[in-house]
Amino acid sequence: MIEVVGPGPLATVQDLGRPGYAHLGVPHSGAADGPSLRLANRLVGNPEDAAGLELTFGGASLRFREPSWIAVTGAPLTVSADGRALGMNAPCHVEAGASIEFGTPVAGVRTYLAVRGGLAVEPVLGSRSADLLSGLGPPALSPGDLLPIGPSQVVASLSDISVDVAPVRPLAGLPTLRIVAGPRDDWFTADALATLTREPYEVTARSNRVGVRLQGPVLRRGRDGELPSEGMPTGALQVPPDGLPIIFLADHPTTGGYPVIAVLASADLPVAAQLRPGQRLRFHTA
């Protein structure tokens, strides 16, 4: 078991989501920065889709009741076990009774913790992910919560864990996100795509796992009326009537009626998931 002493601003259990249910109105959900969770799981010998923790702006405190192997990836922050510093992007052994403390990220938003054996909370529709939009899966963590570790997989030796540290790229201060125009770019003025890619946008404090809300140049409509609701992919740049785009992330609704001017390249979705309020970004047509 892992005891949640303090969850920080937001801590949720996440795996790689529950695909295949969008036609029923169920979001995909899962880790917002999927590659970081995959890496953390690989570092401790788990399947890539094992459930771990997603910490938003760090600040969490956990107590391990069993000796465990862990790995921390994603937004860089300080990690310590009973005051002893631990490294990121590397497997680390923690003793039974150890308290793990997480600082605040110096860049990015979301940090991931994988534990050898995975977190064995009850799955819902084949996934252990917490979906903050629909309420499916386990709720956001609270002090005193107990998280079970998968049975018979917690190890106390390094015999089958051989990675010292995994190199990762630093997060860019001013990232450029690649986009593919459409499917509803014809609902905007002829210069809207040029406007989208010309000047930086800034992430607002209203951003969350549903979407990254942006402040910047307004994208103006070229026609009146509204669309019937239609399917929305992760990474869609939906533009509400105020003309300011929203980048849909893991917990976004499966349908929407505002036009989508462009969609992020899938490889840039993890970059979008690490954008923090006040940070600027650019768009580039792929």
Let me know the largest β-sheet: 7 strands, mixed, barrel
Q: Biggest sheet, strands in spatial order?
A: 12-19-16-17-14-13-20
Strands, total number: 20
Mean pLDDT value: 94
Order of helices and strands: EEHEEEEEEEEEEHEEEEEEEHE
- Helical content stands at under 10%
Strand-pairing-aware structural class: mainly beta
- How much of the sequence lies in strands comes to 25-35%
Q: Round the Cα radius of gyration to an integer and report it.
A: 20 Å
Global morphology: elongated
Note the gap between the termini: 46 Å
Description:
The protein is 8% helix and 29% strand. The protein has three helices and 20 strands. The strands form four sheets. The chain has a seven-stranded mixed beta barrel with strand order 12-19-16-17-14-13-20. Strands 7-6-9-4-1-11 form a six-stranded antiparallel sheet, with no helix packed on it. Strands 2-3-10-5-8 form a five-stranded antiparallel sheet, covered by helices on one side. β13 and β14 form a beta hairpin. The longest helix has 10 residues. The model has no long low-confidence stretch (mean pLDDT 94).
Give structural attributes.
286 residues; mainly beta; 7-stranded mixed β-barrel; 6-stranded antiparallel β-sheet; 20 strands
